[in-house]
Amino acid sequence: MHKQLIIIILLFFSFSNLEAQNNTITKKNLLANKINESIIIDGNLNEAIWDETEVATNFFMFEPDNGKPISDSKKTEVKVLYDNEGVYIGVKLYDDEPSKILKEITERDDFGTTDAFGVFINGFNDGQQDFRFFVTAAGGQLDCIATEQTGEDFSWNAIWSSKAKITDFGWVVEMKIPYAALRFSKGTKQTWGINFIREIKRDRQIYTWTHVDSKIGAVIQQAGILNGIENIEPPTRLFLIPYASSYLNSNNEETSFTAKGGLDVKYGINDAFTLDAILVPDFGQTKFDDVILNLGPFEQQFNENRPFFTEGTDLFSKGNLLYSRRIGSAPGFYPTIIGNEYISEYPANVNLLNAIKISGRNSDGLGIGFLNAITEKTDVSIINPDNGSVRNETVSPLTNYNVTVFDQRFNKNSSVTFINTNVTRNGSFRDANVSGLLFDLNTKKNTYNLSGDIKMSSIYDLENKSGYNTSLNLAETSGKIRYSIGGNYVSKDFDNNDLGINFQTNYSSLYSNASYRILNPTKTFNSFRLNFNSFVQFNNSTSKIQGNNFGMSVNSTNKKNHFFGGGINYNPFENYDYYEPRENGKFVIYPKSYGGWFYFSSNYANKFALDTNPYFTNTSETDRYDYGISISPRYRFNDKISVIYNFNYWKQINNVGYTDNDGTNIIFAKRDRDTYTNSISGKYSINSNMNFNLSVRHYWSYVENNSFQNLNDDGTLTENTIYNENRNSNFNSWNLDLTYSWWFAPGSQISVLYRNNAATFDRTTNKDFSNNFSNLISDNLNHILSVSIRYYIDYNQGKNWFKKT
Q1: What is the SS3 string spanning 403-444?
Q2: Residue 687, SS3 per DSSP
Q3: Whole-angstrom distance between the N-terminal and C-terminal Cα of the chain?
Q4: Distance between CA atoms of 411 and 448, rounded to whole angstroms?
């Protein structure tokens, strides 16, 4: 097996080199002009040096009509200057109908409905990673790090300046991007990869300076070249972000006030690597989790909303071994309760003491990531009501979380990665270690991809255990017709849940995908894609089918830029579910099924737009099915105000699932379930630096059990007429967030947040919506008012302050 794998990889590289011999792509070049005068970022481009600088023009359409030259009426001209502080971008974007330029005002990193211009900079010119900076016609800023493997990461933020201005010939953009926001080598003469992008929102058209061929899966490798930057002296990259915050928390039982202060540090260790550290962290203003009524065997997975763990973490996401919500989550150990004892209060989370991360990539393509976080020891008080005694038990010891990554890129489009995650707990508590080796190989022309991994876990507990997880995938990645085939194997004892998240083990799976797409518009469609997929999963111990699916889907955009999509799914085999019974070795047989869905999304360039998505699933069992619909209208009143409403209804008829274990039998229920989700989001933007945002969500789900059944050893179910426990469920949750945010200086922000939330759960099914909602918010609301101030200090600016003093 190993010899066969080596032969495949060698053949793959041979084919890659053969392609490279015929791969001669002429790239556009642009010369940057050095300046010795001051440039004011005001959107006027009236400094004389702009007129003496080389112009990048002759853009090509990227979407929808790939390769079509831009029209003279939409001509775009870009110029680049530089000094010892950074690069300057001056842009004229012509438009023969400037009154139709869309310019919705949004907060940072939100495109909204607006025209936009962007510059993609690759300081190492290695085809691997872009630093991307966008300016909207309304003056908004967006920035991200982009790689071919992980896409665009807009959680990354840099400090830079820009100004956009609407004119009688179109609009103008002026930008200053400091070197501190980029990564490049220390060479005397710089050669950067660069591309410029323009989006004309009303026509849903995207143009790039260098032609990006959509037949090829890669974008970064098709950039142009920026020359002329020489003998620069980049400043020290050291930034201090002190913060102060206060919280007023009130509910029916008490009112409390807390104040916090701390410091974030960003330090450029060298030209490639950056250190981020948080001292006395404060995540009090992060978004509420959208909690649901979870009846399944697996925990609910939540999004990461804490900036430190979302910003610039592409390296740490390799191999899907990191689920950062583990750090500072609810305690993972529950103490033994004796007799009538009870825990006075079980903490919802564990305090994070500090965290650091080091990340970056050097000129040789080596990316290094190091993340370390420490959470404090957490105890609970256990009270004995019979004698009044109180004892303390540790539910989370002092814990160190660590992630280390080495990612070597080569040939501008391939990589080999080693990643290790480690959790060490003080004392006799469980420790864990997981390592992974990954490869992602592409031919020179990005026509074929071979990827795979092997990951090994070791758990150190009362009973030590080790397991592994491996996969291999081959894909054709260019042209109208594309395909992929692959499989993976996961051993029974593979466990990465101490710092990652993994629901299933002890299985093997095979999958394949094929797709057809148009590369240029037709008379009917701007885009069209037809997809076929198949998937089968087997239990390793019994060879029973754990999961299966065969599907087809269509995604398209018509000439009016309305999106239509739909698909069908068919599961022709019964599934043997080894997780729903909640007991090792047990399984339940679920029936064959089929289903379908449809999706429509009207053009967001219109003031009013509508998204709708009906769906259904039917099974081979009589009267066992589910259906639902999602409807989301949105309206943009003007460039400052917009509102989005979303309604989702899901109905399950005679759903079958685990209910209880009475010590003798595993009890399943045949049940009906109704779930309603209503949410509203809106924003009022005074300008691109000052925004009000509203987010409201009400979730309601109730379950009625129709009958109970015993699970048999062969996975079938037999009616149970004795069990009569009330296992109905009625769950409501409510979240409201109203925020005011003002970026009063580059990187510096004042935010004011008012929020309230509530949740109720009981075993009495109440089908009256108004009564449920009234009970939810009448006595349960928890109110929070918080104010946070963060001030961004650039070390270089600080030096100037002291010099003036």
Answers
A1: EEEEEEEECCCEEEEEEEEEEEECCCCCEEEEEEEEEEEECC
A2: strand
A3: 71
A4: 14
CA distances from 358 to 308, 351, 364, 372 (A): 12, 22, 18, 9
8 Å CB contact between 547 and 576: no
**CB 125, CB 192: distance < 8 Å:** yes
Query: What is the token pair recorded at 23?
Result: 């791969």
* Domain 27-227: assigned CATH number: 2.60.40.1190
Contact 498, 433 (CB under 8 A): no
* Cα distances (angstroms) measured from residue 66 to each of 61, 393, 527: 5, 64, 11
Assess contact for 236 and 269: CB atoms under 8 A.
no
8-state DSSP, 98 = G
Q: Is 16 helix (H, G, I), strand (E, B) or coil?
A: helix
Largest CA distance in the chain: 90
Structural tokens at position 271: 């030209």
Per-residue pLDDT, averaged over 205-233, amounts to: 91
Q: Are 262 and 338 in contact (CB under 8 A)?
A: no
CATH topology of domain 242-269+434-804: Porin (2.40.160)
Q: Averaged over 138-156, what is the pLDDT?
A: 88
**Residue 227: exposed, middle, or buried by beta-carbon count in 10 A (0-12, 13-18, 19+)?**
middle
More confident residue, 5 or 472: 472
pLDDT, average across residues 474-496: 96
Task: Give the separation between CA 777 and CA 762, rounded to whole angstroms.
Answer: 15
Higher per-residue pLDDT: 3 or 759: 759
What's 376-408 look like in SS3?
Answer: CCEEEEEECCCCCCEEEEEEECCEEEEEEEEEE
In the chain, where the domains are located: 27-227, 242-269+434-804
Instruction: Give residues with Cβ within 8 angstroms of 520, minimum separation 6.
Output: 64, 65, 66, 67
Number of helices (H) and strands (E), helices first, in the chain? Answer: 5, 45
Summarize pLDDT for 663-689 with one digit per residue, the tens.
Answer: 899 999 999 999 999 999 999 999 999
Model pLDDT for residues 420-477, shown as the tens digit of each residue: 999 999 999 999 999 999 999 999 888 999 999 999 999 999 889 999 999 999 999 9
Measured CA to CA, the distance from residue 175 to residue 90 in angstroms comes to: 7
In angstroms and rounded to an integer, the radius of gyration of the C-alpha atoms of the chain is: 29
Give the tens place of pLDDT for each residue, 314-345.
889 899 999 999 999 989 888 888 888 899 88
